[in-house]
Prior knowledge:
The chain is an alpha/beta fold. The protein has 14 helices and 16 strands. Strands 4-3-2-7-10-11-1-12 form an 8-stranded mixed sheet, sandwiched between helices. Strands 13-14-15-16 form a 4-stranded parallel sheet. The chain has a two-stranded antiparallel ribbon with strand order 5-6. It is globular and about 60 Å long. The site of iron/sulfur cluster has 12 residues, from helix 12.
Amino acid sequence: MQENQLMVIYGDDPRTMVETLLQKIKPEEGLPRTAKIGLKPNLVLDKPAASGATTHPELVEGIIKYFQARGYHDLRIMEGSWVGAQTERAFQICGYQELAAQYQVPLINLKRDRTITRQVGALTLEVCASVLEVDYLINLPVLKAHCQTALTCALKNLKGCVPDAEKRRFHRMGLHQPIAHLAAALPTQLTIVDGICGDLTFEEGGNPVPMGRVFAGRDPVLIDAYAASLLGLAAEDVPYIAIAAGLGVGEDNLDKAEIIEFNPEAKSAQPFRLSRRVQSLARYIEECEACSACYGSLIHALHRLEEEGELSRLGLGPKAVKIGQGFRGVNGEGLGVGVCTRGLQSSIPGCPPTARAIKDFLGKLNLD
Ligand code: SF4
């Protein structure tokens, strides 16, 4: 897998999706069987993945099965939940205790780990030793919004690899600088993003948005630039992305990425269970057999427009935006999202379009 490649797979079964992705990526090439492999999910707190807060254990299971089947047996799952949450409880509630017992993979609570001091530019950082000591670190963030940094994905997920005192100091420093510097101190070999149903607004979950995808890359900065677009953001809206690029961690120009979608035909139309917050945005949508990947993009785009005060200016009525495979071949008036709605008078191309593309398109509309 090349540094500028981002590989995307659609669906709703993270276990098989990640195994398929790994078969394409072939992370075992050049990796000795004795390698210590670290898996860093996002278990920010003790809420199951369906809440939109944490990494699906099925995704981690798929990775463990993949490596164990190829003779790698020195794996470990590592996490330090946010300040105020107990990592052991998160391991239990999120299904990781069971997973660890089933596959004989140790769980490491990074809150109890010793630390190693790392200097990056002017910043001195305390980083958990267990994470620095692995040979191959796989970062497994959730694609979700964050109340302070707008996005939390690859770069910010590494904050779970510092002790609580350091996490508090990160907040005093405004998050962006230390998050970027930590990424420079803590190289990851692969990032696999759980984009099944990350949260709309907040890292703590509660408003999951079905996005129906898993994607992977070697460059965590490029991953975050792509993730931002999927939430309706520009990379510049998330300052730590550019700071990390400036520190040489990776590339923040999404135009340089080669985005490979393996199964564009496999996007699934799932029944959606929406929180009240997401329902308030869904009232603008007329959905008919919409894929999660498309529907979630539209929800994120509407949320961004609302945040910017543009949604009320647009004056969208109930069910004003059509989306889904049920609109294939439908011609006539109306506003639609995705190639399925291309017969409508005004349609946003893409299959699925990113939230960023939808937001830009809707933001330029004048419906009066
Ligand atoms: S454009 Fe149609 S097929 Fe493509 S993701 Fe959207 S709903 Fe699914």
